[in-house]
Each structure stands twice: as C-alpha cells, then as structure tokens.
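1st attempt posting a full record on here, be nice pls
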Amino acid sequence: MPPANVLHDAMTRFLSNSPWKAIAASLVLVMTGCETVPVPPTNTERPLPKPPVTHCENISSRAFPTLGKVERLDAALDALIAPDARIEMLAGPGTKCAMPDGLTQTLAQGFDWSEGPVWVEYGRFLLFSDVPRNRIYKWSQSDGLSLFLEPSGYTGKTPRTGEPGSNGLLLDPQGRLVLCQHGDRRMARLGISMRNPKPIYEPLATTFDGKRFNSPNDACYSQNGDLYFTDPPYGLERRMDDPAKELRHQGVYKLSKSHLAKAGQGAVQLLTAEIAYPNGIALSPDDRTLYVAESGPDTRIWAFAISEDGALAGKRVFFDPAPLRKAGIAGGHDGLKVDLHGNLFATGPGGVLVISPAGKHLGTINTGERIANCAWGNDGCTLYLTSDMYLCRIRTKTKGKGFEP
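the predicted structure (as tokens):
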C-alpha cells in the first residue's frame, strides 16, 4: 500500500474541483487514520489496585526555623512523607508566651517536657502539656504561644516534685477536652468551655477496685465512644517505689460509653495488667486492634486483637526496637498515633518511627531531641511533635485517623 501522504496528494488533485470534494476529504481522513490505530495490549494481567488518594491542602505559612532530618529506610516512606519535607520548630527556647494577665513571658529554656498534643479544629489551635510545670500551652499559626491552663494535672495544695501535670490530652466525641492527670491520678474532663478555660475539672475515673490509679498517661477513643487509657507510675514522685502507690499493677483500662454517660459512676474495666510500663495507646482504623507502647527497659509495641465483647485477645509483639538500641540509638517507646491507612507513627529510639501495618520500620522523623508524642492537625496532613523543650511539626502526605481522606 502506498504511503498515506502519496494517497492524500493524488486524491486531492483528482477531486479538487469535484462536487464529491467533501466525501473525498472524509475518505482521506479514514485512510490516513488507519495507520495510527493503536494495537490493544496483549497483557491480560489485572492492574494492581491504587492506594487510596489522600487530599492534603497546600498550606503556605511564614518561615519557621528547621531542625533534624527524616531518615528513610524504605522507599514506601515517600508515599507518606515527601522527600523534601522539613521539620519546623514552632516554639522552644527563647519563645515569647502570652500569659493570662496580659503580660508576655520568654521561655528561656523552652519547655521542661512537652507532651500530649491535641488539635482543636473549631479554634484552629493546638494544645499540649508541659508535664513537670503542671501547665497546658496553646499554639496557633496566627497568635503563637500562650498559656492555656495552670494547674493542669495536680490541683493539690501540698508542693510536690516530679511530673505532676497533665500528660495525654484528647477530645471526646462531643469535642470536650479530656486529660490524663498525673498528679491528681485520674482521668478527667475540663468542666468549662475551652473558649474561657479555667482549671475546673470533672472526674471521669479515679479508682479501680477501690484503689487510686497510679497516674493515667495516655488515652484514645474508639469510634463507638469507649475510652481506653494507660496507667504507669510516672506521675508518682518515687514511681514504682512511691509509698502512695495503691495498685500492685500497671494497667490498661477501658471506660465504656455508658460509664462516661454516668459521669464516672459505672465500672472501670481492666483490660490487661501484663505490661510493666504501659504508655502510648492507639486503635487501628477499624478499631479491631489496640496498640500499646511499653516504655522502660523492655520497651516495645504490643498489639491486641479486640474481640466482639470488647475484651483483648491475641497479644503479640508488633514492633521490637532491640536492633536500634543495640546500634546505640537511645530512647524508648512513648506516645503513638495511627494514620488512615493503619501506619503507626510511634515515638521510639531516634525519634518518631514510621511503621507499616505489617510492622516494618519505614523511616524515622528525627528532631535531634527526644520526642514524647505526636498528633495530626490542620487538614490532617500536619503532624505535630512534642520534642522535649520544643514544639515541632512536619507535613505528611497521609492523614491521621479521624480526618477525612
């Protein structure tokens, strides 16, 4: 068959003055088009399913100092944290803090031990604890740092040392602030609006089997409104050897939705007393797996299957950082969070460890300082980090559990 351009020229000359010119032009298009029809692929394999799309906003903000680095151990981390993502330092040594009396205080050394961050969407701000100072701070993009509550975890009159303040913070299904109070040794709820905060607290749980808790540390809600929390001894002045310690164990507990509706008058369920130092706690996206971080000398992350009746079953080690510690990387597991796809962002040796649902260590967010906890905020793609004397953040390509994809 002659080339398409030869056919095109010949037909154009032959029919240029013909009434069938329009028909000829159509015929030329068909003939020339025949040479460019793609051949259907012969591969019959089905394409791999694409991962769910996560929609993150393009957030432009004023420049903050950066610190640390993201250590990449697996290419899969690129789908969760962009290669050019930076760790921003939002507050720390030298930061000016607005006080309730209208004055400004400079935090010369930063925070003593920042912990328990939680994002409050209605006001677009972050709350976090400074446990030794018995305070909760507030940070927002527009207003910077301010003192939100003091005292936050110990309301007694007798001076005490150690870590008396609030630790983990979270919002209940109604949007109210819930606190793990070290010094007062209870789970409590802020008894007044966050728009006009004052240290007025409503106890949610204070005892188990007639004995006071050690010092509730971290907590999470299930989708049906049940509250899970851990109770290590870190808020006691002498910890395990403190004479005020009433319970012989350190437990993981659940307060049912019905218990919470009775303002703390229902039963507290002990889920397990087998973890020496239970600390951070989180649920998988489907609420069928409970993750508990164990701190202390045998630090690791445990996973429990949750049975239909709410009891724990199938205890297993989800992640053991022993190889990291043997390599000389200091630190243990503390707070942790889960993203929409079941990946864990867990504090541990070297920073925040990003761990796949299968337990594979993909990489580490390393600020250069110990990181106690983390929480997503803004559009769900900003991960806030409480890192010792610092408050930091990093943008992610994934979203935290509870945010819309």
